[in-house]
């Protein structure tokens, strides 16, 4: 009796490395070409700057390096990988370059505000106002509280009005003439200048309390005029994304329409609605012109929205920079510190919006 010979062991295939003759560029090729372009043109611009006695042109160095990289990656990829892959790499390089260009002003603004504002970012700045302060010292506690109170009041006014308007447009008035008219007016309100909202609020309160009135609640009304169309538009889009099958399933169970909206439509779209609301608040919190007209500015802390002038961080920044005293550096430092505080508040609002969207988003997994 004969036995079959044992099969020979299968050896694992040797790992092949991508070369220029394999039809694919190595993964490091784009980064290597970019680094080579930066090094070569950096050396050229350094020699030119040393020979002419001028400054090193960072902008010209980056632009020429990127152009050289795009030319090199397209030419080499066309030779090795073909025209389609070469064109794909070329477009990828252009898109990446556009992204880098878009990030330049953002990084520049953030770096400038942090570098100049960190000098007065201390406890005194957040705990004291400018009442009786001339020159160094003082802080922006009154402006921070004014920003919180006025923006909070504007949100309390705008969110219910904007949300209920969006519900009417999507659930009740899609085909009605009133719904179309409201949609047109919301589009018009979205594009009005902020100074017009401030003039409207000032005229309204001047008719009630007389000319020259200044109060925080008037500023909240002006901000709500700017905030309502943003809330309506964002909520409208989120409500439109709710599938009609969910509504129809609720109606089939005998649930009335208003309860379907409360129990089905709103919980499904609450994450997107909250994100839109937070973005609307972040959009109006930095307004200056309407608050200069309606709330004015003051150096003292005022916690009453209905009595007297109130100051916000944008107005504080303007007043500190426009009306510098002696020494002027103290006023400029306070303005930069207030700008940094305002950016951090807006950043916190965006983080809260992302957290709310993540927590309340509908769960799609089983």
TrEMBL record:
One of its GO terms (biological process) is phosphate ion transmembrane transport. InterPro entries: MetI-like (IPR000515), MetI-like_sf (IPR035906), Phosphate_PstA (IPR005672), Phosphate_transprt_permease (IPR051408). CDD domains: TM_PBP2. The chain crosses the membrane at residues 31-52, 58-77, 98-119, 139-170, 182-209, 215-232, 264-285, 335-357. It is found in: Cell membrane. Gene3D superfamilies: MetI-like (1.10.3720.10). It holds the Pfam family BPD_transp_1. Its main location: membrane. This is Phosphate transport system permease protein PstA. It comes from Microbacterium lacticum.
